[in-house]
Amino acid sequence: MGKPLMLQEADAERIESLKKRLRARTKIEVVRSALDLLERDAERAERVAKWRRAAGVVARESRAALRAFRPHSRLRRLD
Predict the structure, then answer these.
(1) How far apart are CA 65 and CA 68, in angstroms?
(2) 20/47 Cα distance (integer angstroms)
(3) pLDDT, tens only, 17-52
(4) What is the C-alpha separation between 9 and 15, in angstroms, rounded?
């Protein structure tokens, strides 16, 4: 059995408006599509946070490797 939600009048109106704009058959279709978008957004935010942590971990070694290759750069030997 479904679980009832207590919506404020303004929220119910927003859902009804989106239902018409999205041509959704039911209000729950609107709510489910919103939940899907929120889940995707949360997953993306988690991935970005992981990428930032990983970049921070390897940043020092990456700079050291770039410094090691700099003296052998072909750009300085083009003369």
Answers:
(1) 5
(2) 33
(3) 999 999 999 999 999 999 999 999 999 999 999 999
(4) 10
Smallest CA-to-CA distance from 21 within 6, 13, 4, 35 is with 13
Tell me the pTM.
Answer: 0.66
Q: Is 15 exposed, middle or buried (0-12, 13-18, 19+ CB in 10 A)?
A: middle
DSSP-derived secondary structure for 14-52: HHHHHHHHHT-SSHHHHHHHHHHHHHHHHHHHHHHHHHH
Tokens of 9: 């009048």
